[in-house]
Amino acid sequence: MIYIGNYKELITENLMSHIKSHNGDTTPVWQPYRWKDNPLLEEALERAREGYSQSNHYFQQFNEKSNDMKEFNIVLPKLPNDNRQILWWIIKLLPGQMQPMHFDPHLIDIKNPKRYTMFLEDFKPGHIFVWEDNIITNYKAGDLYQWVDPLCYHGCVNIGYDNRYTLQLTTFDSN
What we know:
Elements: E1 2-6, H1 13-21, E2 25-28, H2 39-51, E3 58-63, E4 85-93, E5 98-102, E6 111-119, E7 127-131, E8 134-136, E9 143-146, E10 154-158, E11 164-173
Antiparallel strand pairs: 1-9, 2-3, 3-4, 4-11, 5-10, 6-9, 6-11, 7-8, 7-10
């Protein structure tokens, strides 16, 4: 991960109050229809089937398509040297929820993706983000990181007592 900077000023009380008090779209981690025809994704799904129940891994997601998010004018961080098309979503991970190690299937269908993560609150014990063999801790609200490899194997888990909130960004070239 490459630290880009801190954008805490973009995290409004109104936004945080909303995502804390509402459920996002309940999203299953395992969406096999999205994992087809790519050897990396198929291998990850097969390995997951060996060790995880497919039925109990969910997270809350808010994005520009969520009905309750249309009222918010989300101001996204200015990404250095990257003003291409952008997808964004906010992940709310409740205590005990996780996203087992995986690759992001949405990256397979887009051209020249770049991935970024912005933490929406300060690090709390038990909020774990892993990529390859690295773990990130001690981040502050607003810290923005660019992924060195957008297709890296990664996952997260909340073994703490408080919800975990992140803003995920993917930029890409239009056709």
